[in-house]
Structures are given as C-alpha cells and as structure tokens.
C-alpha cells in the first residue's frame, strides 16, 4: 500500500480569510497560501489575524515550497510573517509575485525570500513527491491560477478563488480544457472554494460593472472617490478607463494602492496613460468634475484613507458637498458594522455614497452554486474537500456535491487543524489538532492572546479601578490607599463609593495581615470586585498593588 497523503487546513476552513493549507507526503511538505483575516469587533486593538502554523515549526526543513494562487490580501497578507520562519521558495504568477514583493519589501524580507515566477500552463516538480500544474481561473484580479498537484497517492486539484466568468475584465476566461484533462486522468481530491455556496445561480461577470461605472461617471457632478482593495488591479484599470473616457484626472491615494499600481504598471498589468495621473496633493487646483480618486479603506479600516475621510482626519483630503463616494468591494463577513458606520459618517459629511446593495459597483469574484456544480462535474473527483468558507458554506457545498452523486463518506467537512489522510481508496478524518489565532497588534505578532483581549474587553465595558497601598513591617497600612479609576466612576460623584472601597481594603488587610503579598493582593482585588459590583452593578478591571 502506498504511504498516506496528508492534507491539513491551518486556516480558511470554518472562517472567511486566513487561508493556509498544508499538503504532506512522506517527509515533504508544500504550503498553499499565507493569508490574513480581519479581526472581529470584539478583538480590540488587533490589526489582523494570521494562521496558527505551529504545526510547521518543527518541520521547517521539510517545507519544499509555498504556492500562491493570486494576489489578494486575504491570500498573501501573512507572507512576510510566515517567511520569517519558512526557508522555501514562493511560487506565483508574475502579478501575484509583484504583489508579494511589495509585501516582502514592507516587511524587510525582499532579499531573503526566493520568488519563483510561474505561468498558467507550466509544469514543474517540487521535491520527490509533487508535480505542480498551475491552470488559469477567472476571479476579480488578473493572473489567478488553481493548482493540479500530482502526488504518489493521486492527483489533487485546488481551485483557489474562482468563478466561471466568460467575459472577465482581463479578457482571459477560465481553462475549461485543463479541468477536463484532469478529469480524464482521474482526480483523487478536489479542494474547492466555498465562499458563495449559499448563493443560487451564477455569479455576474466582471464586465457588468462597466455599465454601472459608465452611468456613475456620466452622471456625477462633483468628485468621484472610489474605495477598493489595493490589490484589485482589474478594478483600478476599469476606473482608469472610465476616467480617460470622461475626461477626468485620476489620483491614487493610500500607500499600499500606490505601491501596487506602480508595480502593476511596470509589469504591464495596468495600462494607464501618464497624462491622466495626478498626485493627490495637486487635485485642489483642478475642477471637481474633472477628478476621480482611488483610495484604500473599502472595509472601513480606521487607519485607511476612507476611514480617515469619514472622520475628517485625512491630512490632504476632505469630503466636499457633492462628492460621490463608491465602495467597490463586498464587506468581508465580520466587517459589516465597520463598513456601514463609515458609510453613515460619509453621508453625514455631505457625500453621496454608492455601495453594492444599492448600485452596480461591485460583483463577487467567487463561484455561486451553479458554478460549483459545473466545477465538480468537470473535475469529477473521488473525494471533495470544501475549503475557503465558514462552516455554513462548507456544509452547503457538501450538500451540492451530494446532489451530484458524490457519496457522503467521500466528502470531508473539516475545520482548521483537522488532518485528512488519503490513499487511492480511502479518506480518513483524523482528530483535530490544538491551534488557534495568531494576533498581529502593531509590531507584535503572537505576543498577545485571548487573556489580553479579555482584559481589553473588560476595560472597554467597565473601565478600571486601581488601588495602591503601603504596609509597614507588621502588615498594617501606612495611611490611606491611593485610588485611580478611569472609565468607571466620576471622581466627584463617586466619592462615597471610593471611601467604601478604602474601608474594604483596610478590612481585608486587617483580616489577612499574615498573608503573603501576592495572595493579599488577590484577596483585596476579589473583595473590591464584590463591593463595586454590589454598589454599581458593574465589573471594572480591578488591580491592587502593595508597596
């Protein structure tokens, strides 16, 4: 019997974003994607989340390659973090490699990581056990591929993000012939995008946006400000084409978008005439009806351009009456509140705001149910492994597969950290490994955990109550304790409660004078917590320090 092939999702199964999949055979490993996920609202202070790849840390010498299907942030966002540990070449198509290079430069790793450019239609070997065949797929960014991965156990097909768009923005439709060829060879397992598994029908073509943009540019009287992902190169090209058609100058703002535009123009993926490009600092000298601005912040991120505009805190740009602001991106699940709050703030400042539910300014880049059926029927896999989606998406994808005749035992609905073992005849779901999130907080990566977030939540909900006291050699208090409170009590109106807290501290000290400093601090904190809750009905973060 052949050795078993192992497939382990470290991210992207049971959630949107943070995609990372490990494929392992004998002592060789390839990794697909190094992604980020946007934090939930309760993850206070967290900038992003990257996959928990501790499983790989004692296997670093076994990693032969990192494969990337396309250049969106939720597929390459963690590349600089992961490649600090992983010493293996990164394989990507030219545009994707260019976007990765921007990330690596920002992370100071440009000269340390080997980027290997590949093309759809190539065929190359990795180690002794893997033969890789990238094939073109249509998505919402040019130069996207999926991967055919031949292993000793059989052929695996990983779709990456895809939809069956016959008229994509870059004019390059999906490679139906290659998918059919894979089917003729016999596909052991299909790892397929599940993001839109709950959407019936077919996803609209990228070309349909052009009609919406044409109407927008034709009717807008003032400036047009369009927010999108910095990596959405095809959307930038569509906006540039409309700017040229309607005689507007185009300004790009947001560091990541400027860097990506510069790179994509250099590689030939963006065709923008120099005559229509202007610096954001020069738009004040131009008539409003001649200006279009592309900006970052489509997810309402406070530090991005659109978030700062909404709060009136951009140093070069302010919303003016008559501006038309367009959110040309779908709100990532979990970001809806932040996006709609930003939209409301923009309305408050006098902008006319257009976004997906009310205007034809964005289409999904992911397959809907009928396309998922087509993918399964084209590839005809023995086993289906739904990936890239929340549990509800994975489950719905599995239901679609059962409708097409794939037996239930040949479908694996798994979440992050659950290994699969495959042979030519069998798929086994193994016990889930321990794992979680790695939080990125400023320059800190993995240094804060759930206990820190719980403390931040407590601070946000109830403020803090801080007591400092001094003891003499006999364990008696020297004077009164000093009380500091923020976000919990008004210092004047809360005088009686503060005096009661001092009495509580004195009582505990007198009762437990012989207790060690650490234990006494804990007893004071517990007593204060009970007292403050009894008096106010609230639970601040309480801390007692003994000098």
Description:
The protein is of the alpha/beta class and 547 residues long. It has 3 domains: 279 residues, Metallo-beta-lactamase, Chain A; 147 residues, 3-Layer(aba) Sandwich (Rossmann fold); 84 residues, Ubiquitin-like (UB roll). Strands 7-6-5-3-2-1-20-21 form an 8-stranded mixed beta sheet. A 6-stranded mixed beta sheet has the order 8-9-10-11-12-19. A 6-stranded parallel beta sheet has the order 15-14-16-13-17-18, sandwiched between helices. α10 links the parallel β17 and β18. α4 packs antiparallel against α8 and α6 packs across α7. It is globular and about 85 Å long. It starts with a strand and ends with a strand. The relative contact order is 0.12.
Short description:
The chain has 547 residues and is α/β, with parallel strands linked by helices.
Topology:
Layout: E1 5-11, E2 20-25, E3 28-32, E4 48-51, H1 54-57, E5 63-67, H2 73-76, H3 79-82, E6 90-92, H4 94-106, E7 115-117, E8 124-126, E9 130-136, E10 145-151, E11 154-158, H5 176-185, E12 187-193, H6 208-219, E13 224-227, H7 233-245, E14 249-253, H8 255-267, E15 277-278, E16 291-295, H9 305-310, E17 324-327, H10 336-348, E18 352-354, H11 369-379, E19 381-387, H12 391-403, E20 420-422, E21 427-429, E22 437-441, E23 444-445, H13 450-462, E24 464-469, E25 482-486, H14 495-511, H15 517-536, E26 541-546
Parallel strand pairs: 3-5, 5-6, 6-7, 11-12, 12-19, 13-16, 13-17, 14-15, 14-16, 17-18, 24-26
Antiparallel strand pairs: 1-2, 1-20, 2-3, 4-22, 8-9, 9-10, 10-11, 20-21, 22-23, 24-25
Helix pairs in contact: 4-8, 6-7, 14-15
